[in-house]
Amino acid sequence: MKKSVQDSNTIASSMDEATAHTIEHFIEKMGLIAQADGLPRIAGRILAVLVIYDEPHSFTDLTEKLAVSRGSISTNTRLLVNLGLIERSTKKGERQDYFVLRENPYTSLMQGIEARTQEARALLKATKSDLPDVLEGAQTRLSQMLDFYNKFSEAVKSLT
Amino acid sequence: MKKSVQDSNTIASSMDEATAHTIEHFIEKMGLIAQADGLPRIAGRILAVLVIYDEPHSFTDLTEKLAVSRGSISTNTRLLVNLGLIERSTKKGERQDYFVLRENPYTSLMQGIEARTQEARALLKATKSDLPDVLEGAQTRLSQMLDFYNKFSEAVKSLT
DNA sequence: CATATTGTTCAGTATAAACTAAACAATATG
DNA sequence: CATATTGTTTAGTTTATACTGAACAATATG
Fold first, then answer.
1. Which fold has domain B8-103?
2. Which of A23, A54, A120 sits opposite B33 (nearest CB)?
3. What value does the mean pLDDT take over residues A61-86?
4. Touching check for B148 and chain A: CB below 8 Å?
5. Residues of chain A positioned with their CB less than 8 A from the CB of B115
6. Alpha-carbon distances of A150 from A92, A119, A157, B90, rounded to whole Å
7. Which residues pair with A31 in a beta bridge?
8. Which residue of A has its CA nearest to B23?
9. pLDDT tens digits, residue range A4-50?
């Protein structure tokens, strides 16, 4: 078996104690942030690993570094790839897939958010046009909400 | 027992069939949108009711209109109040609390989002300063991520 | 061909969250 | 005071999701 980028047990020994702790903490916190954003905790942790380390990480690197099952790595790397945050890469003479952070990871994230607001806007427009004008209050409040989503959408688009 | 704003069984009969259906659909979709945003489905549905109807809705109005338990209404109205989306109101001679949509519901929502990004920014800053400069790649990627969150924060703030 | 490696899928389990129903405290009403 | 109303809280249930571990297919290697 090929030696992986770095064995999880040897991380700490190859760097400053405090640094190792900082990294560990960052990885766990990113898991929680991911969770708060509605993503699996593991997805956030994988992302954190790829933010910290320069080297592309293989499937097995990740299972060892994060101590989770291959199934989870498979599922969550695919998720992150779909979100446009990471991408697969390969090395010649190696069968394994490697993962690295994408160049501009966050723009595509924004596109995902944009798509979601688009759904809300569609619903609001449809509801407005389906409801009779006599429901003035409802029409007004729907307009306000739609107006907000429109502005939000613009703001998000300006970030990409 | 006081007659409530409108009995759920009589909604349809007092308005156009198509209109009733549109409202029903809007309420359910709002539940799903709330869910996608990490909120309980019921919170979205309560919000939808208050968007559609002019009248302040009591606790019991909501339980009847949405066919959910009082416990859920209690929990979720409190949640929506804390998010700044709705507010309690009262009527003289009435013991019940009533709920209405706030005047500008969405700005305070944004403030909540802002607070969440603030956490991420704090983590990124702390991690950057705790990690040694020799970890150039990590420093760069952390900066990029922080940069993104900074811009996002600005964009969100511009909406309020 | 037999064995090993790699990634995916899926059944089952664990965990977390939503929701209900009932108990409860506080207040009002008669 | 007894009873009813109102909102909150909490125990228990349901439901959804994350995660594991093992089976699997595909491919490589000897």
1. Arc Repressor Mutant, subunit A (1.10.10)
2. A120
3. 96
4. yes
5. none
6. 47, 11, 11, 33
7. none
8. A127
9. 444 444 444 467 889 999 999 999 999 999 998 889 999 999 999 99
